Amino acid sequence: MTDDAPFGGQVALVTGGSRGIGRAIAIALAGEGADVAVSYRKDAKGGREVVAAIERLGRRAVALASDAGQPDETEDLVQKVRTQLGAIDVLVANAGVPGPRGWEAVSLAAWRETLETNLVGAYSLVKSARPHFASRGGAVTFVASISGLVASPELLPYSVAKAGMLSLTRSLALALAPKIRVNAVAAGWVRTAMTAPLHEAAGPRETLRKGIPRGRWGEPDDVAAAVVFLSSDLARFITGETLVVDGGGSLRWTAGVEG
Ligand SMILES: NC(=O)c1ccc[n+]([C@@H]2O[C@H](COP(=O)([O-])OP(=O)(O)OC[C@H]3O[C@@H](n4cnc5c(N)ncnc54)[C@H](OP(=O)(O)O)[C@@H]3O)[C@@H](O)[C@H]2O)c1
Question: For domain 11-195+220-248, which architecture applies?
């Protein structure tokens, strides 16, 4: 691989990159030439495996433990990336947790953890990373969800957090203009550990699949492709936008025909 690659000579940081969508994003960016740092909270083994996969692509990689819900850890994370790989060109706030089910019996502690990891963590990451961006600027992408676009009482704190992330996208796009672009992807149903209880059970798997016009569940690579695009020079005039990556699933919801 040469540094003529789209992200040749660039440094990316992907939070929650030890598995699932974050892993796919990290490997896809490395495949396009980036050196990549991934963070995780507990999954050190997954982090090491991603580093090995990226190194096999001929790129530098580092995996760092950092809780996305803790602002002081976010500060430390970006400092380490700067020191170990260099100034940041591409930032992907992907770390997330689904939070509790339902809307009635949600504890304050569960609200806090879900909002702090998915939403406040994304804000802290950008705030901490800002002084460490390359002088020419960079691209931030938030991994949000279609849950942030539609009513979702069955996963209330999560959907509120992801809706907040879409608002954060627009506000930070203005705040960080002109040098840093900020966009989001709103992913639909994607086969990862987070959705395993649904895609590993035949009934829910099939019911949800039938609601997706493209006729299948999303794969982590489907989301990674959109993040690579938004992070790239091809998206150089796009900022403050949300790109829905759901195989058309939410089209039915807006038409009022669920499932
Ligand atoms: N799967 C879907 O259908 C879907 C749809 C829409 C949006 N999304 C979003 O996509 C993102 C990735 O989800 P996924 O499906 O790939 O989930 P996943 O397979 O459960 O992976 C989550 C990743 O985030 C990390 N993580 C979780 N909490 C963290 C924290 N506090 N600090 C740092 N890292 C943390 C995990 O590492 P540790 O295990 O070490 O904590 C792991 O690397 C999330 O933001 C999710 O909301 C997913």
Answer: 3-Layer(aba) Sandwich (3.40)
